[in-house]
Design brief:
Chain lengths: ~280, ~325
């Protein structure tokens, strides 16, 4: 790896570190209202790679017309989204603390708020990719050059509407549209295998006409390489990102009890210690 | 749009659906950022010419209504002025939650047009009829709901809805040879009902294809010395409260709709009327919360007692 590439990865890793720290702070501040912890930690490197490097954004202007658009279709993972928007500078640390509090801008699923960099309300699964298609079409119609990045969950792929959208995007030749499937192998009440098998996701997306790869969703270099090598491919792109639900902390990794749960002060301390020591 | 007597007759002959296509062609001339999205129904929605004339403003999503609403919302978020259209049940119920989240909750401005709503497709069965759309959509905050009385009003309502700032639903009833309610141009304003005929005894609120039927009913009532005021309540949400209050001197309020009597125009009127200190009894005429055997439009009109004759019979039974 060149020095330049190395520093890029280091910058993203630092961003991901801060995202995890923000996630912990929000989760503990949410207290008994609980937080969707596991699915936010599984997308931390994905979101960090996008916001720290891959996406064109203007840190001074969340509504910059030319910006790349981001849609968190698996809206329950918003801890990672808000954390990243904080690192970019759109959401203050103080505002992060309002997560799931009364009258907050930061509910447990994203609510459209252009000033905070949240372009869409999401949370009902299976809707984000359709929005992404609309936005990607508009980029072409307006002869703009922005890309659209949509993050969906593997459990979310149970929803039929995901596949309606998956079918449409290649028909419209949306080479500016990326979908990243967070394959953490779990959904709310169990593993994918127990609830609804979504195996062979790469084959599924490929057969729908997407330029598809499968990679380690926590490996920043792999993510960057794919974005780089696929940029001139004239199809929509899908990444099946193999991830670990609850990634980063010994108690939460691959432990579905942390899908939606309370982060106590003692677990917060333990997690913070693990984060810093890594 | 060129509103002439000749055109009004043509639009009536071809029906609201085909008129929609003509109106869309006109709108495209004026509105640069117009987009029309359909789900494999371009022919049914009268959009064949539009599709050929403005391919860049037209997007067919295939038979996938949930995706259509999401794509429409995505385009709307980028400031496109979007119309979606397909048959009313699929335009409203198949993608109901997408409507709630994207148009209601998020407020993305999309104008949905439900074609062949009510009983127009009765020979195809109740999968294709739509007697539930208003009730369902009325419960979603932020949506405007309009049910035009004839083809001319369809043109005017579409123009008005496209210029709204909020999302909307246009409910098109009737089919070809749609009876003419408006023979000449007139002022149409969303939210403001139109009194088509004055009458001191009773007030009949109606919408969509039923407006014509009620005008005919009023003639029969008049021959029996009962004078009915006919109000075209084209906008079902927001409902015209003033018109309801103005009707409270009547002996009877009647609501007539090609929709389930639960949740539609009658319910919207009753919800406001219930707040008033003094108001007359209300007779709800519509589809009496049932799926019947199917058949042609006339057959179903008779079955649901929505012809002018049957409307008169029911009013006479309830007037005293």
């Amino acid at each position: 790896m060149t020095i330049e590439a190395n520093s890029k990865v280091e910058k993203i890793k630092k961003f991901a570190f801060n995202v995890r720290k923000n996630i912990l702070d929000m989760a503990v501040s949410a207290g008994s209202s609980s937080a969707h912890f596991g699915g936010a930690l599984s997308i931390t490197e994905i979101v960090s790679t996008l916001f720290a490097y891959q996406m064109k954004i203007d840190k001074k202007n969340a509504n910059w017309e030319e910006r790349d658009r981001f849609i968190l279709s698996k809206g329950h993972a918003c801890l990672a989204y808000y954390a990243a928007l904080c690192e970019v500078g759109y959401i203050s640390k103080a505002e992060l603390k309002t997560f799931e509090k009364n009258d907050t801008n930061l509910l447990g699923h994203p609510v459209i708020n252009k000033n905070l960099g949240i372009d869409f309300s999401n949370g009902s699964l299976g809707m984000g990719l359709s929005l992404g298609i609309g936005v990607a079409v508009s980029s072409k119609k307006k002869k703009k050059n922005f890309n659209v990045y949509v993050v969906v969950g593997d459990g979310e792929c149970n929803e039929g509407s995901v596949w309606e959208a998956a079918m449409a995007a290649p028909n419209f030749k949306l080479n500016n549209l990326y979908v990243i499937i967070d394959k953490n192998n779990y959904q709310q009440t169990g593993s994918n295998k127990e609830i609804m098998n979504v195996e062979n996701l790469k084959d599924k997306w490929e057969s729908f006409g997407w330029y598809t790869t499968e990679l380690d969703g926590h490996n920043i270099e792999q993510l960057l390489n794919f974005f780089n090598e696929s940029k001139n491919i004239n199809k929509p792109k899908a990444i099946v990102a193999n991830t670990i639900k609850g990634k980063g902390f010994s108690f939460s990794e691959n432990n579905n009890d942390w899908h939606h749960s309370i982060l106590s002060k003692s677990f917060h301390e333990k997690a913070l210690k693990e984060l810093i020591e890594k | 749009m060129n509103i002439t007597e000749k055109n009004i007759k043509i639009w009536s002959t071809i029906g609201a659906r085909a008129t929609l296509g003509i109106a869309a062609l006109e709108l495209a001339k004026k509105i640069d950022n117009l987009m029309i999205l359909t789900c494999d129904v371009s022919t049914s929605a009268g959009l064949d010419r539009f599709r050929k004339t403005y391919p860049e403003k037209y997007l067919d999503l295939g038979i996938a209504e949930q995706n259509m609403i999401g794509v429409a919302a995505g385009l709307a978020s980028e400031n496109f002025n979007v119309i979606t259209t397909t048959f009313a049940p699929f335009q409203t119920m198949r993608c109901c939650e997408q409507i709630k989240v994207n148009l209601g909750y998020m407020g993305q401005k999309v104008c949905m047009v439900g074609i062949a709503s009510g009983l127009a497709l009765g020979t195809l069965g109740y999968t294709h009829c739509c007697i539930e759309d208003v009730g369902i959509l009325r419960s979603i905050p932020g949506l405007t709901i309009v049910s035009p009385a004839d083809s001319l009003e369809t043109v005017k309502a579409l123009e008005a809805a496209i210029n709204l700032k909020n999302p909307s639903y246009l409910r098109l009833t009737g089919s070809s040879n749609n009876p003419i309610v408006y023979k000449n141009d007139y002022e149409f304003k969303i939210g403001k009902s139109i009194t088509l005929k004055d009458g001191r005894d009773i007030t009949i609120f109606c919408a969509g294809r039923m407006v014509y039927e009620c005008l005919e009913a009023a003639k029969i009532l008049e021959s029996k010395k009962i004078y009915a005021k006919i109000v075209n309540m084209h906008t079902i949400k927001p409902i015209d409260k003033d018109a309801i209050e103005d009707s409270c001197n009547s002996k009877l309020i009647v609501s007539v709709e090609e929709h389930n009597i639960i949740g539609g125009l009658g319910s919207a009127i009753a919800e406001h009327k219930a707040k008033l200190k003094k108001s007359p009894k209300q007779l709800f005429l519509g589809i009496n919360d049932t799926y019947t055997k199917g058949g042609g439009y006339k057959f179903l009109q008779e079955k649901h007692r929505l012809t002018s004759d049957k409307i008169v019979e029911d009013i006479l039974l309830n007037i005293n």
